[in-house]
Structure formats: C-alpha cells, structure tokens
Design goal:
Helices cover about 25% and strands about 25% of the residues. A 5-stranded antiparallel sheet has the order 4-5-10-6-7. Strands 11-12-13-14 form a 4-stranded antiparallel sheet, with helices on both faces. It contains 11 helices and 14 strands. Helix 10 packs antiparallel against helix 11. The longest helix has 20 residues. By secondary structure, the chain is of the alpha+beta class.
C-alpha cells in the first residue's frame, strides 16, 4: 500500500473541491492496492473521502432500485431479502447474489468494496458492471459547478479500465428500472479456474415474455448489449454476435485468451437463449458454466466445465 505522497484527506462529496492530484476515495480496495501512482506518472496528493457522505445505500421504490455509489457488496447482497424488495415480482433480483459472488473475494473486501468503485475502476471482469448493465442501469454523475448528467451503464464503461468520467466528476448513484427488474433472467459465467476472475459473464433478459436482451461482459473490454424484438434462433443470435463484437473487442489477459473468450461467449449465449426459450418453470438445462450454486436457479448441477470438455 504505497500511498506515501498523500498530504491530506478531505471529507467531501462536492466535485467543486476537486483539483489535480486528487482521487475520490470510497471503499479504497483498488485505490490502496494501486498506490500513489494509480492514475499516471504524477503522484496523488489528496484523497477526497466519501466515507461520511451519508447516502442511503439501497432505495427501493415502485420505479425500481437506486444504488448509491458507496453501497458496498455486503449491503447489496442483502437486497433480495429486504422486505421492500422481497414482496415484489422482480425476477431480476435473482442476478444480485450471483454477481456479488463473482467478486470471489473475502468478507473484508465485501464490506469495503463499493458498487460505484467497481464501475469506476472499469475492469472488464467487474461484476457490478455486469449487473447494472444487464438491468439497464443508468448512472447519475455529479460535476463541478453543480452539474448533473445521466449515462447508461453500457456507455459509462468505454474500455479496459477506462470510462466516461471527466476529471473531477463523481459517480453518485445507479438506477435500475422496475421494467428491467420485472424481466425473466438467465445468468452464465466462466473462468479458467474454479475460484478465478470471470473470463466470460453473460446475462440474458426476456422483457414482457417476448423481447430478448443479451449483455456480454468480462469477455469483452467493455459491456456489449444486443436487443431483439423476439427470441432469435441459434443462427440469428450467432450472426448478431458476429456484428456486435469485433475480434479486437475481446479482452486478452492471464484470465483468458481472446479466442477462448469468443468461443465461450457464443456457447453461453446459446445456453441463455435456450433457457429463456423454454417455458418458465421448465426443468433446468444442463449448463457449462462453473458458477455456484446451480440449485439456486432451479438448474441441474453442472457437469464438466468448458475447459474439461476440451472447449
């Protein structure tokens, strides 16, 4: 934790106080691990601390769910069991805990790492990016001078560790609309090891029982979302992926080569399509994903994963 260039820590939520050499501090799980040179060759001088912001972590209304940027993973994990959410017919809530589990992190990280921090770090495998993008999340961004703007999460992250934030801007919250939460959903995730970082994470949504939304994350440098007026057939889905995800958009790092991520994207996309094509409540499909626990989604226990099958 090399932060020996910090001269002061300023409790504030006012973007007007930001200046060169500053960094916003929420949970700090990434910032402290990156150190004073987290954002380039010039060292950080001040931390603008959001710890005393006082923002309500989770707000549930008829219109959907508002997640404060400082909401931590442990608080988000409790969301499906909250009385305000548990009584609603929102199948999309089934995505919350699998996405939280995708951190594959200790309880110490869960109690510090924040939803907003995960979006702002903007790594391809960020599971809060996956969750918020798949549920048509909209980010509210505060700027100097009292300005406010809204950006879809699918456009907030622009690449590997890059996003749309201008210097000094602050992510305030993410809104998940009730219309997306009310959709039937399907989740798939793969990594190269049982407890490894996500190499491919896809989420499918069936809106109103007809239109199909597929969100591709982890495999790609930024979220990619495909929309169809009705469930496509296998070939149509594959063609749409061909058009939406060029080869150079697949991510390349120690957690998966681009060719593997591409192959698994097509495979998991077809599994999601088949799952949502079946009647609701139908017997579960055998899945290739390595995610646990499959019984939570009414699925049969997965057999061999894609790597073991020689994919």
């Amino acid at each position: 934790m090399d932060m020996n260039t910090i001269e002061s820590v300023v409790p504030t939520t006012d973007p007007g106080q930001w200046r060169d050499g500053d960094a916003w501090l929420a949970g700090g799980t990434v910032l402290f691990s990156y150190g004073s040179f987290a954002f380039g060759p010039q060292p950080l001088k001040r931390l603008l601390d959001l710890g005393s912001a006082g923002w309500t972590p989770v707000t549930v209304t008829d219109g959907g769910i508002e997640l404060a940027a400082i909401c931590n993973v442990a608080e988000l994990y409790k969301l499906p069991g909250l009385p305000a959410a548990a009584d609603r017919s929102w199948p999309g809530l089934d995505l919350v805990r699998p996405c939280c589990d995708s951190f594959v992190a200790s309880f110490k990280v869960w109690n510090m790492s924040t939803v907003g921090g995960n979006l702002c770090t903007s790594l391809p495998a960020g599971p809060m990016i996956s969750l918020c993008a798949a549920l048509d999340g909209t980010a509210t961004i505060l700027g100097p001078g009292g300005s406010t703007r809204s950006v879809p999460v699918t456009e907030f992250v622009t690449g590997d560790a890059t996003n749309c934030l201008a210097p000094g801007e602050l992510l305030r919250s993410i809104h998940l609309p009730a219309s997306a939460l009310a959709s039937r959903v399907a989740f798939r995730r793969l990594s190269l090891s049982n407890l490894g970082r996500s190499g491919v994470l896809l989420i499918g949504r069936l809106d109103g029982g007809t239109s199909f939304v597929l969100t591709v994350t982890a495999a790609t440098k930024r979220p990619v979302q495909l929309r169809f007026d009705a469930l496509p057939d296998t070939d149509a889905l594959a063609r749409a992926l061909d058009e939406a995800v060029p080869t150079n958009l697949y991510h390349n790092d120690i957690h998966g080569l681009p060719a593997w991520r591409r192959d698994m994207t097509y495979r998991l996309a077809e599994e999601i399509r088949a799952e949502l094509a079946a009647p609701a409540g139908a017997p579960g499909l055998r899945i290739s994903g390595d995610f646990w626990p499959p019984s939570d989604r009414g699925l049969q226990a997965p057999g061999l994963n894609a790597q073991q099958e020689g994919a």
